[in-house]
Structure formats: structure tokens, C-alpha cells
Amino acid sequence: MPIICPNCEKDDAIQKISAVVVGGQSSGTFYGPTAGVAYAGGKLGFAGGYTTLYGRNVSEIAKLLAAPIEPKAPPEGRGSTIIGVGVLLGFLALICNDDISDLGYLLGFFAVVIFAVGIWLMFDARKKREFANRQKPLWNTAMRIWDGLYYCWRDDLVFSPDGKIQLPSEKVQDLWYK
Ligand SMILES: [Zn+2]
Q: Domain range for residue 37?
């Protein structure tokens, strides 16, 4: 069974949204009858530039239909490096403490502050990592859904072939986890 738009019940203006997004990103090219939206049986082409026959801006639609953003964890090691600097300063403070005590205190103060920042960074990075790990399965699911969606240029409608999802292009980003 061919996939048709649930609204106009035609297949001549539909395209996988993943293809729309890829088409929208390759800016600077004219979409001839062999590429992009024009795949739809030759009946649909681009009036020119980045506007479709239905008057929609391709790159704008592509932005609206963009894939869910992959959750990314911050790199490890930044916090521990800073903790290391704090510890080093702490040793320096101990050494200096014998002679000019003011310098020792100052270094000690900085050591404590830097150490605290390092600890905080480490916990913060761990929290973000855990959050990203929890988001990962949701993102995978969202990507599977995203990959199965179609767009009808005629109706500005995003839909799943089973008809369960039907919404205008500007609502697509609301589908994804937050
Ligand atoms: Zn349609």
C-alpha cells in the first residue's frame, strides 16, 4: 500500500521528513527535478531557489522538521584537573606558611576556592552525564519516530504512515522529549 497524506489522500507531494531536512541543509543549490521534493513523480518541483510550489521556504521547513537533538554529556576530567591544581596550591601554601605568612594564607585561600570549584565541576559533570544517559533511550525512540515520519508539502502536514501522528510542521519539535 503506498503511503498517502491523510489530509489530501494523495502521494504526489509527500516526502520523508529526513529527506526534507537533508535537502534544506544543502543550501546554495537549486533543487532540480531530480533532487529534493521533486522526487514526487515530476508533478512537484521547485518554483525556484528555496521556495516550493506551495510557497514554503525549504530551509525554514527543514529547521522545523529537524531531528531530535542528541543528548550529550560533558567530557570527563575537567573537574579532577582543577582539583589537582587546588591540591598543588595547597601544598605551596603549606611551604610558604613558614616565612611570609600572608602569602601562605592567600595561597591557602585560593587553594580552597579552586578545590571547591573542581569538586563542584565534577559533581555537575556527573549529574549532566547521568541526565544524558537517561535521555539516550528517549532520544533513540524519538529518532525512530522521526525517521518514520512524512511531510506533505501541500498541506504542511507531518504524519506517520499509520495515521497516529498528524500535526503541522511547527508542532514537530513538541513531539520530542524535553
Ligand atoms: Zn496532503
A: 14-65+149-175
Task: Using the mean position of ligand 1's atoms as its centre, give its distance from the Cα of residue 30 in Å.
Answer: 24
Residues around ion ligand 1, judged by CB within 5 A, are: 5, 7-8, 152, 154-155
User: Pairing state of beta strands 150-152 and 14-16?
Assistant: antiparallel
Beta bridge partners of 157: 152, 168
Instruction: Give the distance (Å) from ligand 1 centre to CA of residue 12.
Output: 8
Please tell me the distance between residue 152's alpha carbon and the centre of ligand 1 in angstroms: 5
Domain count, the chain: 2
3 inside domain: no
pLDDT tens track for 2-48: 899 999 998 888 889 988 887 665 444 334 333 344 433 334 444 34
CA atoms within 13 Å, Cβ hemisphere of 91: 5
Q: What is the pLDDT of residue 36?
A: 42
Cα 11 to middle of ligand 1, angstroms:
7
Place of cell 514554503: 56
Task: Determine the distance separating the centroid of ligand 1 and the alpha carbon of 169, expressed in angstroms.
Answer: 12
